[in-house]
Amino acid sequence: MFDTIKLKYHQKSKYIKDIKNAPMREQFRGFPVLDSSFDDVPDETCCPTGALKYGSLPVISEVNPDYIKNLRIIIDKAKNNPNERQKLAIGKVSNDLALKAKEHGFDIFGYIHDLDVSGVRHAYLEHGMEKTEIPRGQIPITDDDFEKIPDVLYSYDEIDFSGKNKTGLDTITYKKHMSDNTIFYVEEIRTGKQTLTINTLYKHKNTGNPRTSVKNDNPLSSTGSIIISDLSKNFNPVVSKCEGTAKKILSIDMGKCTFCGNCKCKAIQFTNKYKSASTSREKLIITENTTAEDYEKTAIQSRKEIIKAFSKSLKLRQVSAAGCNGCEMELNACSNCNFDMGRFGIDFVASPRHADGIVVTGPVSENMAWALEDCYKSVPNPKIVILAGACAISGGVFQNSSKLNREFLEKYPIDLYIPGCPIHPLTFINAVLSYITGK
Amino acid sequence: MNWIIIENNEKINLSQIPEITIERLREDYKELKHRVIGFFGKNENENIRLYVILADDNEGKLYISSVLFRDNEKSYDSLTKDFPAFHNFEREFYEEFGIEPLNHPWLKPLRQNQDKYSFFEMKGEDVHEVAVGPIHAGVIEPGHFRFMCQGEKVYELEIMLGYQHRGVEELLTKSKANNRLAESVCGDTVIGHNTAYSQVIETLCGTSITDKAQIIRRIALELERIAIHIGDMGAIAGDMAYLPGASIFGVTRTLVINTMLEISGSRFGRGLIDIGGVNFDIKEEISDKIIKMLTEVEKTVDKMTKVMLKKPSCLSRMERTGTVTKEQAQAIGAVGMAARSSGVMIDSRIDFKDKFYKLENLRFSALGDVYSRFYLRYLEIKQSVEAVKDLLKILKEHNNEDLKVEIGDLTPNSFAISITEGWRGEIVHCAITDENGKISRYKIKDPSFNNWYMLSLAVRNNGISDFPLCNKSFNLSYCGNDL
Ligand code: SF4
Ligand code: SF4
Hints:
The complex is a heterodimer of chains A (439) and B (483). Chain A has 13 helices and 18 strands. With 439 residues, chain A is α/β, with parallel strands linked by helices. Chain A folds into 2 domains: 2-38 and 45-51 and 271-437, Rossmann fold, CATH 3.40.50; 61-229, no CATH class. In chain A, helix 2 (67-80) packs across helix 4 and helix 9 (326-334) crosses helix 13 (425-437). The model of chain A is unreliable at 209-246 (pLDDT under 50). By secondary structure, chain B is of the alpha+beta class. Helix content of chain B is 42%, strand content 19%. Chain B is built from 16 helices and 15 strands. In chain B, strands 1-5-4-3 form a 4-stranded antiparallel β-sheet, with helices on one face. Chains A and B meet through helix 1, strand 14, helix 9 and helix 10 of A and helix 3, helix 4, helix 7, helix 8 and helix 16 of B.
């Protein structure tokens, strides 16, 4: 008996009381800090997962696949019922654009590009008629030209952030040389509602010499699978590459990174910061401008409904789908006496029927795809999805395997991304905690 | 010569591997009485070559040979019906190459087509079936278990795996060095698999790494064994609802893996080992820390085990639960810690020559029940603690050596094999290169591949409520089996 009491005491002394500021050993490889001014940037091939990039920034384009389909409705309204207000989402603001905008002093992370009836009407009135356009050296726009807007927005050649419209809102102008030897201009205004709304569109013939610099190797049509979206729902990310940025950018995609330290050098350092999770897939891409402090402040954006529903208790069903058992072991460790996640009301439960959401680990093999989906469907609404580990977020070290089926992850909205290979219990607990409490 | 005899971590030219018939193999296997540790195919033009590797545990030698199946040969007479140890190997070979072992007593899917398989059925009064999985109640990997029970008693447990199949072997042939992938073959045996992988590639490149790196690898391997064994003892205690055990072993394990973090920057030692050596040194200061930590850990484990083994409630759950006899274990080709607790004393650290280890087989009465597996873990922790202390001592003598050496190119047309004793048992990695010096076939055998059937045997005639306890006492790997 005496021994048992002593052991209990011993167990108590190992308990981490303040989980939010828990100390971490300095050897831990956590949040990376990048600085390419040191010229020892390692070769991309040293990275086993393709997380390290030195060149163009990986862009996660999240584009509305129904854009073209629904475009005609908006155009029709603009011509016949201009007083009706209707909006069409074009897609989510790319990481690349948001970073550029940040350099010019405005934050458009998480914004959405959209097109509304008044913008289309404006474009037609201003730039749709031959008698006004031809003297200006421009070509009148047609219905088909609106189809090209996503292409211009996601793979523009030049961009100008300096404009302001009549009412003082910021405007962004994109310019793109098209293959039919015309130049397109698209103007957007930054509205207060986290959107960039198309203001106008015009084009003219490219009279200058044919362009010598080759850009836009990767037009939008080649971004591959494009994902469902409507404005009310979350977008699902598709990672695609966008070539053509002149300046080389050093970046690490924490969604792929195994934190193995292969790339460690003066230019790439790993801090022992463990709060690396985010609610946005894009944010996981770390560039030289990202500091750990800034990241921690903005990475997890909770929602009112989530806080209301789950802040006191969150029961999770874990689904292990073809990982390596590393993340599972760390998730188990979350409930041990050191971390004791249960004290915050966060627990793993046996049945999806008792759960408020699922935690997926592993890259999702063909053999597990149906079970994962079944499990998700069995969880009653409202529910959340958490991806834990590089495997779940991007396929990690298994991303090139032919035995995977990641459809599920593309089909349903993801709430929280937790990087690591494996994830650290502190990363997991802190991420979930700040997501459900909003703090 | 029907067999070429080599040592662990040795490379041979493909042309040196003899070719025999299946009948010859059957007779030799009977005569030699060695253990089968490798049995896998490889495409060779239109034909398929089956490589067979046997281990002679007494002499520490490996016997290698091959059988050629020509284009039109689509079946052979099964070996499993005579030697049950082949059962999974033949299933795997059939699944991958479509060559059928005729009269195989139980040719069921191993990694694919789980839904097309019809399970055994039992009929009669009071008979019922319990199906669990692939998603289990806890935070563990997926697998499907089907119990055939009468009342509370389990008559037969059928295990269906393959849900974790993600094509690791295929991915490993794609690049020359991918230690990060090797670590993820099985995330609880990071060091074990990564060591085996690195050794195979180093052997194929003809590189010999420094003694210092060898010693550090072994220290990490033993630390991994200590950590996982402690964690498993905690999990066994947890499944008996003996919570002090679960908590104390749990926090004690944290001490070990956090020391691993101090060595390598990862709690499981990821990023520590690379082909050519290791990435992190164990300096004097860390060495002292390890010794201090181990002393504390050993003391706690000692105490907790003693307390636990005095509790009648614990003993009655563990003793004579989930028994696998020595004969059964031997027949199905069980390996590693699970086999040792049934009295089959095979341990590749001892059986195969290794100049860094000074280990001896443990003496204890192995009864093959949960108690034995629990107690053996306890003994192995103590053994490994001593081993780490020893290794740290000899590490000092190699202070000035490099951590890593340059590796050369892979030798073309070669075959290499490496065996490492992970905490579960022997991990076998084999690699074959083609004429351009690229890896054309990579084969992994995790100890779980042999041992899953042990679990089926263990739960026979036990109460179904003892299943979780039996399962934890083996703690087999799903991903290591499914690859
Ligand atoms: S630490 Fe991340 S980015 Fe660096 S090499 Fe490893 S996986 Fe790639
Ligand atoms: S992310 Fe890494 S540790 Fe987690 S399951 Fe995948 S490979 Fe294993």
